[in-house]
Write a structure and sequence with these properties.
Elements lengths: L12 H13 L2 H4 L4 H10 L6 H9 L2 H11 L13 H8 L1 H16 L7 H25 L6 H6 L3 H17 L5 H22 L4 H8 L10 H18 L6 H5 L2 H5 L4 H8 L2 H8 L2
Length: 284
Amino acid sequence: MNREPSLVPSPLQPQAAREYLQNALASPQNIAPLPRVCAQLAELTAQQAIDAAQLARLIQSDPALAGEVMRVANSPALRPRTPVVSLRQAVSWLGVAEVRNIAMAVMLHGEVFSAPGHEPESEELWREAWLAGLWAKEIARERRKHVESAFLAALMHRTGAALALKILSRFEAERRTVMEARSFAELIVEFEPVFGRLLMTHWSIPGDVQDAASDWRDYSHASHSDLAGTVNAAHLLATHTLYPELLSEELVYESPVFEQLGIFPDDRRAMLAKRDLVRSLAGV
């Protein structure tokens, strides 16, 4: 059976799609608005005295966020001796910083890592980002550096690709077309850096986090090379966690980024041994 003419890839599509992406750059508020809960959470957590009950009420207004906070609080890696049964308990047990991290992750997942028609690709990017955030937190704790910023930098490190994917999926839906796979992938690679910066600027992400999340691939030349190196290492660990058959433990262990970060061989082994704990926290 022949495909509908409108669904046949056209040689003109890559240029039309590139123009569509460029037009999207001019209106960031329309493609990835800062979720209301994130804005309210940032305002609330900026206060010197934070009421756990007030924070719990805010979280309860978003069912997905409330569910994730409860899941993490009761995960094998973090749960107390008796189960956490209320949001107020969960907020008190996890702490404000951890709740803020979970909120940012949930909002990103819903707002950015969502591309109708390309759900598997979008979910793969999300799992990379979420796991990298958790691994970055472990690296930061081990080194006692970037404890407040490592999670967010790693969580953000694939947002540019996710946002480009989301916009291209919208292009396909509006044009009733399916792009050729190679052109589609090349456009995501081309626009990943600029869309990542756009999103982080619009969401008021700190400058050092933006730099590290953008420059993690070339971490040694990044303006915040140590934090970018942390993101690079977290990405490797996340990839190994997801695809151990493609990226072996030995290849991760021998990566030069760990030497730059001053993580000694025994500490690398100990870190790799935390895979199950990180999987538990991630829910993957």
